[in-house]
Design goal:
The protein is an alpha/beta fold and about 375 residues long. It has 14 helices and twelve strands.
């Protein structure tokens, strides 16, 4: 089946005994055994739940993985995936990461004995220079959050595997509809399912997708030991959102490109970070490894006063901390997603008081452009 069909029919073999077209919500913590020593697929919902399993099978099929596991949030997914490593193991990670991932790595994983180096992973030579005998993982976001750095997944995978390391790719921004990291050599794919997979800003979710059965079994051990699995009703909501993923992503992609092109012409906007612009540093790589550019744009405006004015003036865009839904959102990373990153580091990377991140939704692009224009020039 092709991708659009998989979004609806990837797990048709898992229909329940009543033949419900919409996935049934199995709101049960435990399951009755059929008898002593009679195998049963379900016993306790922390281990497996029919509604969640349907969703996990769908996500695994979309990413081309051996299996997938659904969690209560994207950060839970990353936490479980990082349990595969031991004190003394060395991790190389994209320096431009979501702030929550940076916080986990620096304040939790590092305190538990993992060693980290952060680098612009779009620079393959810089990554290669950091590899050590104890390097066990290269962790990348591509495009990265919020500067939209693009990393060559295949080049990183080849480098990592030649040195006995795994590759994790956070595929939240592009989704498997536009980018399939496992086909490019990634060992594990991560998602904040809260974002584009769910698509409606109505529930939290996270996913770990493993490329092999061996990795899937290792992740399953930590999943059932630690907990944090996605609840049945939330699984239903994410699975329902996935059904419209291709349609939403194509509209979002179309809108984002038009908005980025407008922002390039706006004199009060000094920088536009969007991977779909031909002048973008990672444009050639994104064209090679992805089918689309996604809906994330970051901008630097001429002053902090203007940044605050835009946030206070928008009417269709909503000033809110998230991304990937049908509604267009605008975020102030220095106060929200990256507030825990040291000020010096934020400023060095350009995440300053003039920097805004935009998540484009499915509204009419003309209305969105007009909203940004009036927010820039209108009165508060």
């Amino acid at each position: 089946m092709r991708f659009e069909t998989l979004c609806l029919h990837a797990d048709n073999n898992e229909k329940d005994e009543w033949g419900t077209l919409s996935t049934a919500i199995c709101q049960s913590a435990t399951f009755v055994h059929k008898g002593v020593n009679i195998p049963s697929e379900y016993s306790y919902s922390r281990l497996a739940n029919p509604t969640r399993r349907h969703l996990e099978n769908t996500v695994a099929a979309l990413e081309g993985g051996a299996d997938a596991y659904a969690f209560s949030a994207g950060m839970t997914a990353i936490t479980v995936a990082m349990m595969l490593f031991r004190p003394g193991d060395h991790v190389i990670a994209t320096d431009d990461l979501y702030g929550g991932a940076l916080r986990l790595f620096r304040q939790v994983n590092a305190s538990n004995g993992l060693e980290f180096d952060f680098v612009d992973t779009s620079d393959i030579e810089a990554v290669q220079k950091l590899i050590k005998p104890n390097t066990k993982l290269i962790y990348i976001e591509t495009p990265s959050n919020p500067l939209m750095q693009v990393t060559d997944i295949k080049a990183i995978a080849d480098l990592a595997h030649a040195n006995g390391a795994l590759v994790y790719v956070d595929n939240t921004f592009l989704t498997p509809y536009y980018q399939r990291p496992i086909e490019l050599g990634a060992d594990v794919v991560l998602h904040s399912g809260t974002k584009y997979l769910g698509g409606h800003n109505d529930t939290l979710a996270g996913f770990v997708v493993a490329s092999t059965r061996q990795l899937a079994d290792e992740i399953l051990f930590y999943s059932k030991t630690i907990g944090g699995q996605l609840a049945p009703f939330d699984s239903f909501l994410i699975e329902r959102g996935i059904k419209t993923l291709p349609i939403r992503m194509d509209r979002i992609n179309e809108n984002a490109l038009k908005i980025a092109q407008y922002l390039k012409t706006e004199p009060k906007v000094k920088k536009v970070h969007y991977v779909g612009l031909p002048e973008s540093k990672g444009y050639d790589i994104i064209k090679k490894q992805s089918k689309g550019f996604g809906g994330m744009i970051s901008i630097e405006v001429e002053s902090s006063e203007l940044a605050e004015k835009i946030l206070n003036n928008v009417k269709i865009f909503q000033y809110a901390e998230s991304l990937g839904g049908v509604d267009s959102l605008i975020t102030y990373p220095m106060l929200q997603t990256h507030a825990d990153v040291p000020v010096e580091e934020r400023n060095r990377r350009g995440i300053n008081d003039r920097f805004l991140r935009i998540s484009v939704g499915i509204e009419n692009s003309i209305d969105l452009i007009e909203d940004l224009r009036q927010a820039i020039y209108g009165q508060i």
